[in-house]
From TrEMBL:
<feature type="domain" description="Type II secretion system protein GspF">
    <location>
        <begin position="224"/>
        <end position="287"/>
    </location>
</feature>
<feature type="transmembrane region" description="Helical">
    <location>
        <begin position="263"/>
        <end position="292"/>
    </location>
</feature>
<feature type="domain" description="Type II secretion system protein GspF">
    <location>
        <begin position="50"/>
        <end position="110"/>
    </location>
</feature>
<keyword id="KW-0472">Membrane</keyword>
<keyword id="KW-0812">Transmembrane</keyword>
<dbReference type="Pfam" id="PF00482">
    <property type="entry name" value="T2SSF"/>
</dbReference>
<dbReference type="InterPro" id="IPR018076">
    <property type="entry name" value="T2SS_GspF_dom"/>
</dbReference>
<keyword id="KW-1133">Transmembrane helix</keyword>
<protein>
    <recommendedName>
        <fullName>Type II secretion system protein GspF domain-containing protein</fullName>
    </recommendedName>
</protein>
<feature type="transmembrane region" description="Helical">
    <location>
        <begin position="123"/>
        <end position="143"/>
    </location>
</feature>
<keyword id="KW-1003">Cell membrane</keyword>
<dbReference type="GO" id="GO:0005886">
    <property type="term" value="C:plasma membrane"/>
</dbReference>
<feature type="transmembrane region" description="Helical">
    <location>
        <begin position="100"/>
        <end position="117"/>
    </location>
</feature>
Length: 302
């Protein structure tokens, strides 16, 4: 990405266009990442690069300084990265516990075999054992799906909170009117990642930053916030750029606190799949076959 932007700048081409093109190429045969990787199209890393491209485009079109906005964007990206690290930490404990519980059935089966009980035969070659094995596998699959859903729900929704407010502040700082600034920001946020054909799984022409005007996940909250801030600046006689930057900073603080809350909550909610699915699966695979084997041996002896 950085190399492509540097080459584009040396040639005098649009750096924003170069960044969007690189994002569109990710996951294609000529790209440097596999689809679904951390930089694949549609990932939050790719969306962060698209946010940077939009900021660069607005600054170039409006003639406004870009350095301050880049610093604030970098701060927002660091907050999102820290959130994902917090989520990984919250997930580490339940994952380690689940792995340990998964090993316990093997220990139980081996212990039963050593003691002379036919636990392996009971589990794999009898109807009750196969029922337990199928039920345990289904519960473990359900636990994996449940964990994945909880982690996805806790991840950051927006790679650059307050982006539209920040971009509007840049455009206004360039000296244009508020209406022209908003049109400029909408145009920058709705530009496709790559003109031309893109393979399935990549960002297609016409796709935009999710959650921004024109995007497939469009919500009007950001545009409403921009309109309210501009209206307030007119009523109070305060420069709109400063109010927009303050509102963008408030969005970032809110996103940061919400992310911390979700990460803290995740550490607790991940215990639900462990108790509801993983532990019953252990009982079905590790304990029930041993009990059935003991009972069958007792009945046979009598």
């Amino acid at each position: 990405m950085i190399e492509a932007a540097a080459h584009s700048g040396q040639r005098g081409d649009s750096i924003a266009r170069a960044l969007r093109a690189e994002v569109g190429l990710l996951g294609t045969p000529g790209g440097r990442q596999e689809p679904g990787g951390p930089d694949a199209p549609g990932s939050q890393t790719a969306q962060a690069w698209l946010s940077l491209a939009a900021a660069w485009q607005v600054a170039t079109d409006s003639g406004a300084p870009l350095a301050a906005c880049l610093r604030r964007l970098a701060e927002a990206f660091r907050d999102i990265a820290q959130l994902h690290r917090d989520l990984s930490v919250a997930l580490a404990g339940p994952r380690a516990t689940a792995r340990m519980v998964l090993l316990l059935p093997l220990v139980g089966l081996l212990l039963g075999s050593v003691l002379g009980f036919k636990t392996l035969h009971t589990l794999f070659l009898t109807v009750p054992g196969l029922v337990c094995l199928g039920g345990g596998a289904a519960l473990m699959f359900l636990a994996g799906q449940w964990n994945g859903h909880l982690v996805r729900a806790a991840r950051a929704r927006d790679p650059a909170p307050g982006l539209e407010l920040e971009l509007t502040a840049i455009a206004v700082a360039g000296g244009g009117s508020a209406e022209h600034a908003r049109e400029m920001v909408r145009a920058a946020l709705s530009r496709p990642a790559l003109p031309g054909a893109v393979l399935p799984g990549a960002v297609r022409p016409g796709s935009t930053l999710p959650g921004h005007p024109g995007g497939p996940g469009h919500v009007s909250d950001a545009s409403d916030d921009v309109a309210e801030v501009i209206a307030l600046s007119r009523r109070a006689g305060v420069p709109a750029a400063e109010l927009l930057r303050s509102a963008a900073e408030q969005c970032r603080r809110t996103a940061r606190s919400e992310g911390q809350r979700r990460a803290a909550t995740l550490g607790v909610t991940l215990m639900m799949p462990l108790g509801v699915c993983v532990l019953p699966a252990f009982m079905l695979v590790g304990v029930v076959p041993l009990l059935v084997s003991v009972l069958s041996s007792t009945v046979t002896t009598q």
